[in-house]
Amino acid sequence: MNVEKSHCEQSGLYVHIPFCEAKCRYCGFYSEPVRNHNSARLVSAIITEFQMRIQTSFSPQTIYIGGGSPSCLPQEQLSRLVGEITSRWPKTDEFTIEVNPGQLNKTSLSQLRKMGVNRLSIGAQSFDNTELSFLGRRHSVENIQKAVDAAKKAGFQNIGLDLIFAIPGSTLASWEHNLMSAIDLGVQHVSTYALTYEEKTPLQKAVEAGEVKPVDEETDRLMYETAIEKLEKAGFRQYEISNFAKPGFECRHNLNYWANYPYIGVGPAAASFWNDNRTTNIAEINTYIEAIGKGESVIEESETPKPLQIACETAVLNLRRRCGIYIDEFQKQTGYEVLKLFAEPIDKYGELGLIEMTDGRLFLTREALPIADSILCDFSDV
Amino acid sequence: MSTEHIRNFSIIAHIDHGKSTLADRILEITGTVSDRQMKDQLLDDMDIERERGITIKASAVTMNYEHAGKNYMLNLIDTPGHVDFHYEVSRALSACEGALLVVDATQGVQAQTVANAYLATSVGVELIGVINKVDLPSAQPEITAEEIEHVLGIKKQDCFRISAKTGLGVQELLDALVTLLPPPTDLSGEPTAALVFDSINDDYRGVICYVRVFAGGLTLRQKIRFMGAGRTYQVTELGKFSPKMSAVDRLGAGEVGYVIANIRQLSDVTIGDTITDDSNPAKRTLPGYVPPMQMVFSDFYPGNNTDYPKLRSAFEKLALNDASFSFVPQNSPALGFGFRCGFLGLLHMEIVQERLEREHNIDVVQTAPTVSYEVVTNDDNVKKIDSPSELPDLSHIKELREPFVRLEIITGTDSIGGIMKLAESRRCRLLKTDYLSQNRVMLEYRAPLAEIVYDFYDLLKGVSHGYATMDYEFTGFEAGDLVKINILVNKVPVDALSLIVHRSVAESRGRRMLVRLRKAIPRHQFEIPLQVAIGGKIIARESIKPFRKDVTAKLYGGDVTRKMKVLKRQKEGKKRMKSIGAVQIPQEAFMSILDNSD
Ligand SMILES: Nc1nc2c(ncn2[C@@H]2O[C@H](COP(=O)(O)OP(=O)(O)OP(=O)(O)O)[C@@H](O)[C@H]2O)c(=O)[nH]1
Ligand code: SF4
Ligand SMILES: [Mg+2]
């Protein structure tokens, strides 16, 4: 379990592309239709933000271009962005781009691979066309298979798939089918998310109107447990509440988040945690671009959490990892003794068999994973 | 001033009938308060009074008034209307020779109208009937006048018709008051005797006693003696309320004002005590008061055990300003250390609780209010208990007695049926029916306090479409066939959830309590069995299913701040909860056991 145990000098760079082809029915993120915007302007603004904000000393170990869907950028813009990044930071351990299986006609995967991108995260979501259209995804099962094939052909050896479960109408059997399809494609990484009903989304409105009935809690839990079981059987290891990887293929960029190590986010709405400061960029695309044009700061919100708050955040994030909190490391990182700071919840959940401690680590038990929030909330504040 | 030109009067009425508004007009007409300083219900100066729009504490004010070429000193005491603060009315009345009995012309005679009028008559105070709110289109002054005549014996033609809001008829009322109400008897030559009718604690000046001088007089630096307590002090300040405190050198016989005398604590002063001159004491004390009786009790526990000392000092402060509130340490096997608190009624409890929250910001959990009981043990000892948890095992008990009250309900005749049914279901026995007018009636019941003190008033309002009003007065303890319902949460008996009820309803009540608790206790990470036991026998069980899924799927960099907020809110939701083992019981659950509705 040494991969998770990152070192403190570690940091990440995130680049946010707030464009999508069209809005999925369940999506609560801020993103805009790419056709309404000038991609070149956005990419230029992002590149300017690199120059404005980032000191030369910053050298991230991991880079992640996410969205939205970065793959809906025209190929030349995506290449320009990647090229700019690799020329600034030629040496990184992991460089991921999120791709949408329906948009690979635009993107040349082999070019990205050649430019230094070494990991793809593919938004598959489901291997059932009815479910895909229920979700408002604009791709088919076939698209996913083709995308994975193309990625492999382009030389990618680190491919991740995202899957959504507890989709209304789905069953334990249909979910198993989805899982097996993902496993059969021979990818190295799988993320599984229970469908959530975000405020103001068309899907949530449909639920409110009684047109859609969410999957019941018990089935939701069973689906989650099935995922753990099937994926583990296929050689994946669960390393975080919703993330599974073949040994050595854990997403290091995300591990950086769960370690509560610093990262810089660039682009509209991107979040950063840098010098103990949490900031968020202006979300609205044009406002963001204008601010960059005027040489103004693009930071919309900023917060400097107190050391105690950072300790709580670290605990909450660490506990999402299966390896949990490394007790010594926690103290070095935050200055607090975890066993003292959280004595009360640790005792309580220890007795209930939901938290365990071995080898200097404090971690949630398997029993605790499906109800993690109810436990983590007691670590969110002291 | 000679007593001939002094008039002391209270304003009494049912709640909201316009006492404080009438006081406003009188303050205006007498020029006591300038237009600029005037505001509605000026004498309601406590924050909670202003927010709730009700009077909680009686306030006294001294005014000058010229009538027929003569100067009069008027001492007015505005009183609260709510039943919980009844004792404030009786204190005010004993400082006066007269009272204005205000009746809202849109409502007619109501329960506290009757109760307060009886109180006034019993202390020998002259009553003037005042029919208020005649400006309103729905006012029925004639019917109201007839009710007043019929129930209270004040002739209808003698009642004044006014609008305290517009001022209509208030001047005439004032003029009449001066002629109709008797002046205080002139006892200026006698040894000093002043009645302490109220006292407050001032952070800077210490205890301030509200007094009515009956005989002799009080002067600055006089050495005075509190006859009941036997303590002596030197007067450091004397004064009147105008309505702010303004110092004077002397308070003569018949006058109302305040005394400050280096008294440390509110508890050093007994309301109703007589102040006299230490060197020339009065022969007899003035008739005092029966201290107000605490009707309901409730336990307060700090949400966090380490807050116990904080809670104690908060209660000490509250008690400093409210002599009718009491608290004693309490140790519950399930809930740990806390306090048993006594209140005059539910409104009083609510107000204390609000102060605690507002002024002290302590996370507390409060148990359902209960009345007190008398336990007669096998060896004929009579013990008073004010919590079901203190009830000894039934085998040690010969008799269990509960408090009874005389309950008066005034209502329209159309809701009699519904009210009778409600009263019957609450073990009330009808004693008397009296028609106030053609379609309004007064019902008198003998009722167990426990049946009418919590939700009865709301239900009464429900069956009478908001029209019925009620008043009650403690009459005594009587034996009853009572049993204790015990609740077990996760197999642990929780004394703070137990309830004493009549045997005939115990089972159905116990089942209902379980249903309420199942809804009020949130789901946990594990299943929680709930059981109800009566006399050691489990009669019903329920269980709270655990939650099975509660986890946010994704948590990446950008979500940290937002997610932490969500988690903190989730944790915040666990406040005002008390843990019993691993089970967290929220405030609502403790209160839910009283909910007796279907
Ligand atoms: N229209 C009208 N409203 C009035 C009159 N007198 C009082 N009110 C209103 O009746 C309500 C209650 O008046 P208060 O003066 O607070 O009544 P109260 O008797 O002092 O009430 P408590 O002290 O709580 O028992 C307020 O909204 C007043 O504005 C009146 O003559 N006419
Ligand atoms: S592609 Fe992703 S970001 Fe875009 S709308 Fe769909 S779910 Fe939302
Ligand atoms: Mg009032």
Provide the helix percentage of chain A. Answer: 25-40%
Number of strands of chain B: 33
The biggest sheet of chain A, with number of strands, parallel, antiparallel or mixed sense and barrel status, is: 9 strands, mixed
What topology, given as strand order, has the largest sheet of chain B? 11-10-16-7-8-15-12-13
Distance between the termini of chain B: 64 Å
Q: What is the total number of structural domains of chain B?
A: 5
Q: Helical amount among residues of chain B, as a percent range?
A: 10-25%
Largest interface: A-B, 52 and 25 residues
- What is the overall number of helices of chain A? 15
Query: Which blocks of ≥5 consecutive residues of chain B have pLDDT under 50?
Result: none
CATH class of the largest domain in chain A: Alpha Beta
Distinct small molecules bound, one entry per kind:
guanosine-5'-triphosphate, iron/sulfur cluster, magnesium ion
User: Which topology of the largest domain in chain A does CATH recognise?
Assistant: TIM Barrel
CATH structural architecture of the largest domain in chain A: Alpha-Beta Barrel
